[in-house]
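cron nightly-structures :: item 1 of 1
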Amino acid sequence: MTLSDLVTEALSKSKGDNYAAAKLLEKWCKTRKGVLEALIPDRLIRRACWDLVRYQGRKERREIWMAPRYSKSSRGKRVMAEAKTRLMDFRLPIPGGKMLRYATPEDLDLAIKHYRTQIKAETERVEWLERIRPRVTRTVGEDLTEEDLQKLRG
């Protein structure tokens, strides 16, 4: 049985309800021999593992960047020391997610380029939304057309 056959059967048994079909496939993964292997080929496992590692890196970057930098309590010095140490563990947004402590000048250049690209893209989106805002009194869908949005995009 192929992956397509399994999904078709699940959709048929659930009368086309996507949520019910997904639940049925989940059940079959636990009860039918070979279904899990058919649904999750090696490339999906590799992708899921890579996504988990990338997610963890983003989570760690956010935690490190947002770490407390000051405290009036008696433990303030400890907080500062931990924050400084953790900055060394900041994962760069480059292939491999290297920690800042191990970054070479070339790694830093890649990270800088990445953030500058993000800034440019985000700035373009902000400016686009700022051009849209004065033209909307109800909702964007009611006040503007797709053509209007394209023109405002520039």
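cron nightly-structures :: done
The mean pLDDT is 83.
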